[in-house]
Amino acid sequence: MMLDQSPSFASIARKIGEPRLEWALEELADHLRRDISNASLVPLRRDVRNDVKQLKAGAARLDKTLTRLAEKRLLDLPFPRELEVRHARQSIRKLVQWCDKSLSVISAKGGVRKHPGRTTCAIIVIEAWTYTKGKAPRANNQKVHEICDEYWRACGRPSIGEPRNWRRSMDEALRHRLRRHYQNEIRRHTIAP
Known about the structure:
It is a single chain. The chain is mainly alpha-helical and about 190 residues long. The protein has two domains: about 10-40 and about 115-190, no CATH class; about 45-105. The chain has eight helices and no strands. The chain has helices spanning about 10-15, 20-40, 45-70, 80-105, 120-135, 140-155, 165-175, 180-190. The longest helix is centred in the N-terminal third of the chain and has 28 residues, at about 45-70. The radius of gyration is 27 Å and the shape is rod-shaped.
């Protein structure tokens, strides 16, 4: 098979060893596509940190400006009563404290999206393999790496190159909490003999 030609779900099911998996693999492809699509909606940690830093800087500027205007009472501007200014400044300081606390919790690392969808792809292939063979493959199983890449391409994604590039995704998939969900989905979508 040429790499530029997308494999079919039927050929992947046969490669796994159970042709009845075709429909399940096709149905679960939507999960993978949705996973990839939703990844763009999750903000990066560095973006969240930058927004919190901007909020903190803006709150600090507002506090200084409010203090300066309250002290000077420039040009007889209609200024809020002293009690209202005190409450506003307390709220601003609480906001700055919240920003500091949030910045201490949010990692300073960029939070780059790590190949969205690849773990889901690996989980689907692992659970299809487990359904057929009765035992989950190991993370370094070359044949399962190849099947992952074929399933990835069948779902409309470009090949990731060397099949062994699936090892990390396989490792994550084998430890993932959603495996049971996909296990049930594969059973549900596979037609009984």
